[in-house]
Amino acid sequence: MIVSIIGRPNVGKSTLFNRIAGERISIVSSVSGTTRDRVSTNTNWNGKNFILIDTGGIDQKSDESFQASITDQALNAINDSDKLIFMVDGKEGINPLDYEVLNLIRKNNKKAILAINKLDLANSEHNSVEFSSIGEFETVKISAYHNRGITDLLEKVLEDSKNISSDTENIKLSIVGHPNVGKSSIFNLLTESNRSIVSDIPGTTRDSIDYVANYGENKIKFIDTAGLKKRGQIDPGIDKYSTIRTIKSIENADVCILIINSEEMITAQDLHISGFIKDLMRPCIIVLNKIDLLDKYEAESLIKKIKEKFSHIPDIPVILTSATKVINIDKIVPEAITVYENSIRRINQKELNKCFINAITNKQPPSKGKKSPELFSISQYKVGPPGFKFESSNYDLIHFSYKRYLENNIRQSFDFSGCPISLRFVKGKKY
After folding, report:
1. Percent of the chain having pLDDT more than 90?
2. Is residue 20 included in any domain, yes or no?
């Protein structure tokens, strides 16, 4: 079941969305028009699973930048939904824009519950009487901010829904990069939708937007994120929360798709974002966008530079694309799935032992003074991403260069392209 929260700007839709979701997903601000795209989350209430969607404020007569796109996104949400939460401001009373929203609901013949919000003050209670003119909807008085009436609202919204079993686990692909590199364009092409608003204005996408689609035997959850700005360019308000959301999307991703603008070559911000990916130990592929603006030799040179600059993410796959010309977009998901499968691969112990013996036979760990470390065994202790444990004596004396040597041997023996690898060294003894 899909439930969308709709209404004019600044009636508290995002506050209600976060309240029902149980976490701060949508950005909340007193600035009208903060929410631009559809933001969705899978949630559960009383054993009933449903998709909850937050939308931007509907104002069809506004000439403000993005408003037409915001309204289009809200209209798409109305069409996609099984039921609507029509939200109004009980403190202000009825507004002409409320009738605009009402007409859209009627036009699309959708079931809706009227949620009269902001009834946290005694003197605002009488304003709710005004909404009796909207007579065809069941009405619930709520305060999203103070968590009042939410249970009553959900009971009415979900009263005719059935308990739904959880879906198959999705492969989560987070599309990241600095502002205006083409993330939303690629997101829309991959999902064959117009979920994300596309504009030449940096910072158009503020929230992390997601879309679930079937891809062969896999169910893919695509996540479009806000562009990560340089620290000095981050405003303390909306930009700060956008940054937090993006970092969280990286942390929760099965694979990060890092978009780089070929026109700008490799920026310090690209490396900064890749640092987040490395620190959070997430698998990654690089998509070099706008390659239609480069010739063959420029593209080859840039790939070489990427391999050098991003050496902290070993064996990272690079795909050359153009969102404008729709070049190689179809290669992104298969490569991301390959990297994901690499990240969850568990190596047969016999093969792992062979790799280990070859490595220590060819090169023993260097000694330090009179003491020298000795390695006894290897085992894989985790996947997603892969981690390997070495039992040894004097493991604290193992130099980082030898650890890198061991990792390189593992990578040469098994395909872990695009995946970070963690190595643990513990005290052990010879068998």
Report:
1. 28
2. yes
